[in-house]
Known about the structure:
rod-shaped, 81 residues, binds zinc ion
Amino acid sequence: MARCLxxxxxxxxxxxxxxEPTGFCEAHQNILEFEKLQESPWRKVFFxxxxxxxxxxxLIPFVWTLKGLYMEPPAKAQEVx
Length: 81
Ligand SMILES: [Zn+2]
């Protein structure tokens, strides 16, 4: 049996025996799976937020030009009056 590959933040390696396919002991295997489960939705949320911000940044000039097109005729009309 090999030793668990988990390293503590202090720098010490876990002394428990590893389960063959993963290389981690039972306790740390569960932690790893838990971290994976927690990580993926947050990454998705993060990338969605970044994509949304980029979309808004690209849309702002577009909205401003549209506003300019629709706001110009009344502005000109006011100048004439
Ligand atoms: Zn362990």
